[in-house]
Amino acid sequence: MSKLNSRIPEGPIADKWTNHKNHMKLVAPNNRPKIDVIVVGTGLAGASAAASLGEMGYNVKAFCFQDSPRRAHSIAAQGGINAAKNYQNDGDSVYRLFYDTIKGGDYRAREANVHRLAEVSGNIIDQCVAQGVPFAREYGGLLDNRSFGGTQVQRTFYAAGQTGQQLLLGAYSALSRQIGLGRVKMYHRHEMMDLVKIDGKARGIIARNLVTGELERHSAHAVVIASGGYGNVYFLSTNAMGSNVSAAWKVHKRGALFANPCYVQIHPTCVPVHGTNQSKLTLMSESLRNSGRIWVPKKIEDAEAIRAGKLKPTQIAEEDRDYYLERRYPAFGNLVPRDVASRAAKERCDEGYGIEANDTNEGVYLDFASEIRSKGKQAAYALGDHNPTEERMIELGKKWIEEKYGNLFQMYQKITDENPYETPMKIYPAVHYTMGGVWVDYNLQSSIEGCFVTGEANFSDHGANRLGASALMQGLADGYFVLPYTISDYLANEIRTGNIPTDAPEFEAAENEVKENIDRFLNNNGSKSVDHFHKRLGLIMWNKVGMARNTAGLNEAIEEIGLLREEFYKDVFVPGSSDEMNPELEKVMRVADLIELGQLMAVDALHREESCGGHFREEHQDSEGETLRDDEKFKYVGAWEYNGSDSKQSTLHKEDLNYEFIKIAARNYK
Amino acid sequence: MASKFINITLKIWRQKNSKAKGALETYTLDNVSTDSSFLEMLDQLNEQLINEKQAPIAFDHDCREGICGMCSLYINGRAHGPDSGITTCQLHMRMFKDGDTIYVEPWRSRAFPIIKDLMVDRSAFDRIQQAGGFVSVNTSGRTMDANAIPVPKADADKAFEAAACIGCGACVASCKNGSAMLFVGAKVSQYALLPQGKVEAKDRVLNMVRQMDEEGFGNCTNTGACEIECPKGISIENIARMNREFLKGALTKA
């Protein structure tokens, strides 16, 4: 159990972080340039960490597989970032953000981590404004806010539907400044292939230059993994095509435990699936639930007529619409947390009320008509027109919507060829975010000494379900305000270590392993493409380890993935060679890791005999279909130890979760 | 979405690496759903090539929702293809007809050397950003409160519109001079419009323009192709603003 010392500091919750900071070791400025740190990934968590460590004076090497650090998938986050500023004077506070996040995570996150996150949330906004991030503002010149799911205050800061882009470009600008100053060396189009451990400590990585194919050895006194989540295990997800688990998985294979892999966020508002050649799914921001009302027809024959193209949604009378979230959850209505909204959509579609004419009839409406009318009326009043015509209200309302959500409406129109200003959007849940990840202690250090994991790649802050606008908050909190302190505490013991030579036998061995692995795939001479296997894995995962899970399905998934893995190694075909730009080779290495991970997700989901957050076991629900947690048996973090590519052999370690400051209760949004 | 299926012919630029000589190759592809995106069509072609044990076509892409800026492609002579206000990954095959021949080429610009097939090296943009595209504030969080300086909404909105640039390089590829001034102008404008960016405004514009020139980008002759092809609708007003900022900086900086 020594593997799972969470190192949570003693003391009252509000003092833990401050006291901890006061007592951690420091590295003096003159010693920092002698210390090398590797950062893998340049999204919010990675770019902010690399920039901060560079500023402090450490010698930083940053890696990303994309052509520029600015491409990382944080850029696609739409809706916003939470912070307990209480600018709207609606009763927000650090405690309330802390409480909402713990409750939103269905009481499966660490109190101390989440409180720290809430504490530093305000600094993030200050920092970003100082960097020139153009957040949305009110006419008085102050920052605007909006609401997100699972909260009853307005604490979300945003930049139209492109908040992730603006925050990432802010972090990228800070990183660029450090690169320009020579304190960070950037390796773009480079992929981490393995972690190198010497005497039990993380001492470097093997990276592949994706342009030349060359394998490179890079040594460091600490390695930071900020490589994002693993949603692409489902093939279809809102992740970018290149998003992968490999950096995190390599660390896991080298001994770091992997926590709560079964906690996956299925986001309720995405554009529904349309065909077999589809490569990814597109999110429509949760912020739209501020303005849109979700419904399906009350009558099953209306749903059938819509699918057959005989009825339009605008022809369904108000009384024949089932606003099922408002009906089931009057207190939070359309702004219930994501897992709740997703399951409710699935429930309606499973009952036959889905409105999309795809293979599975899966789709519900997100309707902006009433918001367009009411905001149009307000706008007309503001212009002095106290008796506006219907047309005037609609015209002004559409303008208001365009200002708030213009880019999202345009995206939707381009994908579906339908105009959401005139007809309701069709949406359905899709895989979006993964709460599970590499297990880390309070200092964000994994179970490998000197290997730190930040952002979505770790498991630490969101429990079994993440609230909207909290991923950006966590990524930047980890990189700007947590890791720079905690990694220094570790690096203080490294000031006498000196340069770490890359000709050590451990580097040699790791590089040879990578080389063998690459050659095995290139010489495999199989008959099927990498995508063929990835799509099959995705289908197993979506059908059996998706929104609703049960014992029989999970057992099947574990067996099927095992068989798929064997077939993959026998029959996958990778064209080209290792000494050139070879995207198929990149993919095959990533899919090999996703297969192992997928099986572990099923193993974890099977062992967790309860429903909590995004993990819904059909055997554990109440008469109204709400989740039933089992705090007696499962109030712990499930962290798995790697024992070979068959994930059935993985060993479970448990970290008990103690709720000292929040009273644990059933989650209720009614 | 009533999907249709079309058959198309593709003329695609193939080039093994930066030093090899390239050429347009012809491919035929059947049963392309009109609901597919352009890149999903290329996936389909690649799957076909892989099954025939041929080398698939290398192209850059990542988010596939029009925001990361990684996808590129000159399609039938236009950056990001025939539709407007979108990136290639948002272009859908419903824009094409059964029997069409489609030409697919990489960005063509001296400052964007080809890596392979349709992939180009845009790291010149990163180096311009490193020369001055930032506010020199440390990431300590110990700045003033975010609401300490009110910013007029009109300025904040304009700064945001400039900051919406995704750094794809369509402006450079579309420009007959291979100029990067829309890209640089957008970054300079974002900061010039905000109080936080004003402190270093003069140094910033001078440094970014110097780096832009060193990278081999051409000059602006006000053709306006960049603005038309920009997937994010970045206005050439930003170039005018950069020129004013540059003049101000060059004349008043000691």
Question: Can you tell me about this structure?
Answer:
The complex is a heterodimer of chains A (670) and B (254). By secondary structure, chain A is an alpha+beta fold. Among the domains of chain A are: 269-430, Succinate dehydrogenase/fumarate reductase flavoprotein, catalytic domain (Flavocytochrome C3, Chain A, domain 1), CATH 3.90.700.10; 505-656, Fumarate reductase/succinate dehydrogenase flavoprotein-like, C-terminal domain (Methane Monooxygenase Hydroxylase, Chain G, domain 1). Chain A is 37% helix and 14% strand. Chain A has a 5-stranded parallel beta sheet, sandwiched between helices. The longest helix of chain A is centred in the middle third of the chain and has 27 residues, at 390-416. Chain A is globular. The two termini of chain A are 39 Å apart. The model of chain A has no long low-confidence stretch (mean pLDDT 96). Chain B contains 9 helices and 7 strands, in the order ββαβββββαααααααα. With 254 residues, chain B is α+β, with helices and mostly antiparallel strands. Chain B has helices at residues 38-51, 123-132, 153-163, 170-174, 181-192, 195-198, 201-214, 225-229, 237-252; strands at residues 5-14, 23-33, 74-75, 78-79, 101-105, 114-116, 119-120. In chain B, the strands form 2 sheets. In chain B, strands 2-1-5-3-4 form a 5-stranded mixed beta sheet. At the A-B interface, helix 2, helix 4, helix 5 and helix 11 of A face helix 1, helix 2 and helix 3 of B.
